């Protein structure tokens, strides 16, 4: 803490006063028996400096010894420390005014001056008749009181002090205080009582900090769907049970370890805090701000509010999840041990579904039962973990549209270009293959190669891109939002990896080479992406080049209707690939679901709405690949973009396993 002290001007003591003035019951003395007021001013300065530095022991040294028995050091220090802690004092500064000489009433106090010689007393007359009402005479040489009554008026010094306190909890506080100093046996000492801190404390009061915490806000959706709320008994419940469980998250009571970091934010034992999902990410909005009252409690129990801040209740947050779409996504994943689906609106970036398998019912963590009373086993980390935003996986061939977009962007190919799709392709000593060594005869268009998922077309194409511009592909991936957080807000998310030259060098893998690009062209190598990233990037292809920042929270509103947060749709990037080239990429993706040999044709047969998508079967080094299918529909003007991944699916493929799940989610969207 800092201290600002104005220069102290010592006043000359007036030697006389007007004879016709009203007599002062305690006249101002004209002399000081020991040191003058300059020494008192120095003591006041050192006391205030010690207060600013929270050096309570040094402050205590200035106290009148006669008062220390009533106010031990521990009590003195605790009172000042309590104020600093309760108010969260950040800085304290004091500006003393000009000192004024005052006269204090005479008082009995431990003798500090040599006692006068006893006055001889007359010898009593033994023949006299005693008067029973007379006051007995003191015994010669024996004091009647162990204290010495000082002659009055006692000279003192008053210093007016302006104390400025900057506090985290109560803001700026301006305190006008008065230091009273008197002569002690060794010089000036401070007359102190708790009143000097706050007059309302009296001579023996204490401070108390009261907290007013409002009810935690609800999590609600369109149509007043309630996802989370606090009951009258204080328990947090989740009316939609396991629907959207990982997105909503859960709360639990703070632990002693939590309080080491949360106590400064006003948390106390018995409070709850969000542990996952929106309950954690939107904690500040949902919890609100406690109201605080600094209360002086006098010795007789009288209470006075010294400082106060208003409580701000928790806000209701509105979210974009659409229950029918979320439900369809979760039901589609239910047969699988693990999996994830993300669905977004390509027109705004609103997130409609974030599903993750295995499912998670947050009531397991707060109630231990469903709302109907069925017992729930506490969830493990695998259930709580939201793979739609936290699971990052190699994308496999679902990455090929970005390889094509880079080639179109730098002019390596045009929509009219053709390439071969042999069963194998040789690069140096390495032989790359198509799935089951399949091939297409002769020269084929890039749409046909996309539909058939020809590695042997898109790998050589990526090499052509690299030879023209080594960074064209990786630069474009960053534009599409890979390798960075999507910015969804209020949810923790994985950034994934774009293995460009900088990443490879940082991770001890040399630099970016043609071989790295060849692997990247089919979503292998070190590349990792989340379902939300893939759904959002595909949406940007389908809408003609607008990458939206995904939005899950739209507003936060206090119970009185005040909006405290308003999240508008936000464009994250404008893709530099031309709308015409992106439209051709859409054509190639629509071929995946329409051509007879398209890897997604069977899954979308009879769907009735044109779908643009791409299967991906990412190698994992085991017989169980990751099966992907990102897609959007309608292909020519999409209103939904979905990406599903089934990690480590035994002998699976994106077209046969993941694509049907995407269809189910789209069907729910178009049905509602």
List descriptors.
single chain; disordered N terminus; alpha+beta; six-stranded mixed β-sheet; 672 residues
Describe the structure.
Strand 17 and strand 18 (351-357) form a beta hairpin. This protein is α+β, with helices and mostly antiparallel strands. 27% of the residues lie in helices and 24% in strands. The chain contains 21 helices and 30 strands. 41% of the residues are buried. The strands form 9 sheets. It has a 6-stranded mixed β-sheet with strand order 11-10-9-16-24-25, with no helix packed on it. Strands 17, 18, 27, 28, 29 and 30 form a 6-stranded antiparallel β-sheet that branches. Strands 1, 2, 5, 6 and 7 form a 5-stranded antiparallel β-sheet that branches. Helix 9 runs antiparallel to helix 21 (654-671), helix 13 packs parallel to helix 15 (455-468) and helix 13 runs antiparallel to helix 20.
SSE diagram, text form:
Layout: H1 37-52, H2 56-60, H3 65-68, H4 73-87, E1 89-96, E2 100-104, E3 108-110, E4 147-149, E5 154-167, E6 171-184, E7 187-191, E8 206-212, E9 219-220, E10 226-230, E11 236-237, H5 245-248, E12 251-253, H6 256-262, E13 272-274, H7 277-281, H8 283-287, E14 291-297, E15 303-309, E16 316-319, H9 323-333, E17 339-344, E18 351-357, H10 363-366, H11 381-384, H12 387-390, H13 400-409, E19 418-421, E20 424-427, E21 430-433, E22 440-445, H14 446-451, H15 455-468, H16 472-479, H17 501-506, H18 514-520, H19 531-542, E23 546-549, E24 553-557, E25 563-566, E26 570-574, H20 579-592, E27 612-613, E28 616-618, E29 626-633, E30 640-646, H21 654-671
Parallel strand pairs: 9-16
Antiparallel strand pairs: 1-5, 2-5, 3-4, 5-6, 6-7, 8-14, 9-10, 10-11, 12-13, 14-15, 16-24, 17-18, 17-30, 19-22, 20-21, 23-26, 24-25, 27-29, 28-29, 29-30
Helix pairs in contact: 9-21, 13-15, 13-16, 13-20, 15-18
